[in-house]
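Q: Here's a chain of 172 amino acids. Please give me its 3D structure as tokens.
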Amino acid sequence: MKRTKYLLTAILLVSTFLAASRVKAQSVNFSGKWQIDTTRTSFKMPDGSPIPRFVISQAVAVTQTPAGVMIDRTNLTNDLQEKHYLQQMTFDGKASQTVSVSGNNETDVLAWSPDKSGLIVSITSTSPDNQPVAKITETWILADGGKTLLIDKQVEQTGGFKYEIKGYYQKQ
């Protein structure tokens, strides 16, 4: 009888922990319209050389559901014209396909960060003729009580050229 009681108590504790973990995973919500904060975002490489403005989204509109995220990005083209593109990704780890502002094909995969406090967007970019262009990892976290979205974008281009840019976005 005591053994059954201990077993039931253990099952109850584990179930409570798992339920709390699930709630935590869904408690961070990135939904909203976000505009780049150019006063906090550095457009410079570690060596001081400039990073073009078109390498980072100027604005993002995010719709998050329990199943996934839809991101409407406002990016600049090489000639600095605004252009939108839409990414729709699910939390089940399935890859989705989209075409970037530059015309490259993207394979996008969405995941929660290990501590469930942020999102990880993994992007593999290929040219229209299917040649590798870059591997991009974006880590998304909320700061300032949810008023600031930080997107830490790490890029490795074909040929080994790497850079990182941290984009700070203010909620609109």
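Q: Can you summarize the key feature?
A: The chain has one domain: 30-171.
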